[in-house]
Amino acid sequence: MIRNYFKNAWRNLKRQKWNSFTKLFSLSIGVVSIFFISIYIHQELSYDKFHENLSNIYKLNTKVESPTGNLSLGLTATPVGDYLKSVSPEIKEFVRVYKEYGSHSIKYKEKLFSEGETIYYADPSFFDVFNFKTIAGNSATSLVGPNKIMITERIALKYFGTTDNVVNKSILYDGTPFTITGILENLPPNSQLQFDFLVSMDTFYKNRPNVDQNWSWFPMNTFLLLNKSSNLEMLNDKIKNIPQYLNGEDNTQKYVVSIESMKDLHFSEPKLGELGTKGDMENIIVLFVIGIMILLLAISNYINLTTAQISIQLKEISVKKILGALKVDIFKQFMVESVLLTFIALIISYGIIVLMMPFFESLITSRFDTSFLLNPDIILLIIALPIVLVLLGGIYPAIKFSNIKTIYNHKSTVQKNKLFNIRTSLLVFQFSITSFLVICSLIAYVQLNFVKNKDLGINTNHKIVLDYGPNSEIGNTYESLKSELNNIAGVVSVTFSSHVPGQMPNGVTTVIKDDKGNDRTGEINLTLVDEDFIKNYGLHLLAGRDFRTGIADKTSALILNNAAVKAFGYSNPKDIIGASFEQWGGDGKVIGVVSDFNYLSLHEDIGLLSLKIWPNQFEKITLEVQESNFKNVINNLQTKWSSLYPNIPFKYYFVDDNFNNQYNKDQKFSSLINAFTLISLLIGVLGLLAYASFWCDRKRKEVAIKKVLGAKTVLLIWNFYKEFSKPVFVGFIIAIPLSYYLGQKWLQNFAYRFDFNWKFFALPLVLMLIFVWIIVGTQSIQISIANPVNNLKEE
User: Fold this and answer.
1) Pairwise CA distance, residues 617 & 474, whole Å
2) Distant-in-sequence, close-in-space partners of 263: CB < 8 Å, separation ≥ 6
3) What SS3 class is residue 526?
4) What region does 69 belong to: left with phi over 0, alpha with psi -120 to 50, or beta?
5) CA end-to-end span of the chain, whole Å?
6) How many angstroms separate the Cα of 47 from the Cα of each of 40, 268, 281, 482?
7) How far apart are CA 127 and CA 53, in angstroms?
8) At 313, is the pLDDT very low, low, confident or very high (cuts 50, 70, 90)?
9) How far apart are CA 667 and CA 679, in angstroms?
10) What is the DSSP string of 408-421?
11) For residue 187, which phi and psi values (nearest 5 degrees)?
12) How far apart are alpha carbons 510 and 586 in whole angstroms?
């Protein structure tokens, strides 16, 4: 009997090819969507769980409280970890991690590489706290002593082409010989710490004497490994009462150290200096809802198209009942058809997943760890998925078909044209989901375009950056190099700095003396620049003067932005000109004030900024180049650079791109929303096209009779449009509250955002209506203009 059920099911699928294809496509894409969303969510929720002692690992943070505002740092001073371990039996071990910023040259024989952002310094206790796997070398001794470096497997293959016999080889790191002491497995993608190079902390101390006694500089990410029986309350008391941060000489600035569990690190509030990228639980929830919506959209498509075929199979079912078939037999027949279709869809889904995995990883710029799929619980869920799909998509149609009466009466089966019959309700549900995704996609698109096109108050057009990294020799001779670069055809201007727009400057304590001699202390950002930075970036001076060439302004002159001036208590920028300052071991006079400009992302309000000349701290060169001659300029620059600095890689990027990189996380989320919106539209298009085809076909004789009675073709087409516009309007209205709420919540992440009001919803509504009218129009126009005689003579 089961075999006959499958035979009949297969015949029905073949007989209704378009209908079957649409249902298969909808279910397959729905499964693929829920798979990719699930794997993305799992990766986000599994951050750092591979560390065996994760529940006992904690991180220290520092909050700097000053009159100019509070600064939340994911960092500590260098000696904090040592001190806390000496007074706290709760701490089993601690490790400090320092991230190297900027560009660094690494050379092996004749091979020259530029590396940055993935270079960490760490204490030898690194492997006592964390569980990163070593494939060569001794992790216990690899980070002991100066000029020792460990690399990942990826870097070993990149530099040497193999991981064999790499340990003890020597490389030049910024011109200094380093010994490779170990090779690590490539780091898991769900690790908060992401590095390719691990340098011994003794190297850090060697180049920075007495740093372990400095309690007011915060370079370190400090992690604690606590004993399992540790008392967190007692440890918190010790952290809050670090003697060096109590009753300091400067009562206007306070340092408050706090502790945070590493389990919560990925989704906690972002802090300056933290390692890795942050997740967003709200985005996770939104994606989960979207995944469920797409799956339900696919299932509702299946139900709608299945029930739409009821009038075709009514006679067949009636005949079967007359010949003795029971309700349960009819029910089994349609459930078997549902099972067959679902399993075919799952096979198709598997193929799509395999083909789409590289594309999806490139879409979110991250690779996936799929090993969790072998977990018994996950395997159980995968097995349960077909059963759930069969139950959700098959039960209602099977019950509806099995309850058909033995004596077939066509009139009794024709549904009245009600707004909320079953099939129309499913259409409303589908349109509400599609409308929600379209609105969300448009919100993300408009906002990201808004922030990318907003006037930043700074000129970044046609500017490229040569990033040469820390090199005091280049910095101290920057005037001669600037002259060399200015002589290259196509170079409009040249300026040196420590940072460029889009990069977080150094945070430094700054003391300003007012006209009465009182000190005003605050933590503000510092960018080190040359005399041409303000002019070349198009900054506007509100008061005072620009830097001048010569010895006088080097390290002893300071320019502030207007936000910093206000934070120090001056309402008029002119009043601060001439005020004495102390900053980062130097002093001098405030000589100018520039208007505020967005040097960081529009997620935040404009921060407090100071500009000062300090040549040996320069790391970047900004060149404005002629767009029409760009390729030649780059080639000439590379030739000149290679001749002047053969041991420093030629590395360049656009200032605009560097600034826009701050929105990578938002762009990734927007790409996901766009991808799943497109998927929902594809499901909707196929479902609506199949349903419209069936619905219009049922109206064929009705339209023919109306035409015979004198109805105009335009009015007949309009009636079709009206019928399908109703569920669009209702579905769109249902989608508005949720999409508005979530849209407003997401936009709160930006200090600057587009004007999101009721007018915004007009565009997606019009798009949805046009989308539906095009699909329905292809069917309705064909029927409305046809010869009524041909339609009336059809059975």
Assistant:
1) 10
2) 48, 54, 55
3) strand
4) left
5) 33
6) 11, 12, 13, 46
7) 11
8) low
9) 18
10) --HHHHPPP--TTS
11) -70, 145
12) 10
**Residue 403 contacts residue 703 (beta carbons within 8 Å):** no
The 3-state DSSP class for residue 625 equals strand
Cβ count near 413 (within 10 Å)? 12
Looking at the predicted structure, is the pLDDT value of residue 411 above 60? no
Q: How many whole angstroms separate alpha carbon 566 and alpha carbon 67?
A: 11
Q: What is the mean pLDDT of the chain?
A: 83
Q: Rounded to the nearest 5°, which phi and psi values hold at 551?
A: -70, -35
Size of the chain, expressed as the number of residues it contains: 795
What integer pLDDT is reported at residue 370 of this predicted model?
A: 63
Place of tokens 């097995």: 383
Two tokens, residue 53: 């002692």
Cβ-contact 364, 190 below 8 angstroms: no
Q: Is the pLDDT of residue 397 over 90?
A: no
Q: What is the pLDDT of residues 552-594, one digit of tens each?
A: 788 789 999 999 999 888 889 999 999 999 988 889 999 999 9
Nearest-angstrom CA–CA distance, 41 and 265: 16
Minimal CA–CA distance to 564: which of 587, 593, 604?
Answer: 593
| Among the ranges given (96-105, 330-339, 488-497), the one the predictor scored with the smallest mean pLDDT | 330-339
Q: Is 770 helix (H, G, I), strand (E, B) or coil?
A: helix
Q: Which residue has the tokens 């989320």?
A: 669
- For 144, phi then psi, to 5°, come to -100, 125
Rounded to an integer, what distance in angstroms lies between the CA atom of residue 155 and that of residue 162?
9
Q: If residue 224 lies in a helix (H) or strand (E), which one and from where to where? A: strand 221-226
d(CA 228, CA 704): 81
* Nearest in space to 539 (alpha carbons), one of 464, 468, 592, 499: 592
Q: CA gyration radius for the chain?
A: 34
Judged against a pLDDT cut of 60, whether residue 310 lies above it is answered with no
Number of neighbours of residue 647 by Cβ within 10 angstroms: 10
220: which DSSP letter? Answer: B
- Take residue 539 and report the two structure tokens written for it: 């900054």
Alpha helices in 246-326 (DSSP H): 281-308, 310-322
Tell me the pLDDT tens digit for each residue of 644-695. Answer: 999 899 989 999 888 888 888 888 888 888 888 888 877 777 767 666 666 6
Say whether pTM exceeds 0.85: no
**Token couple for 789:** 């005689």
Instruction: Supply 128's token pair.
Output: 């006592």
Contacts 24+ apart (CB under 8 A), 114-119: 114/467, 114/469, 114/649, 114/651, 115/196, 115/197, 116/467, 116/469, 118/194, 118/195, 118/196, 118/197, 119/195, 119/196, 119/197, 119/199
Per the DSSP assignment, residues forming a β-bridge with 96 are: 222
Distance CA 567, CA 571 (A): 9
Our CA angle for 372, 34, 442, nearest 5°, is: 125
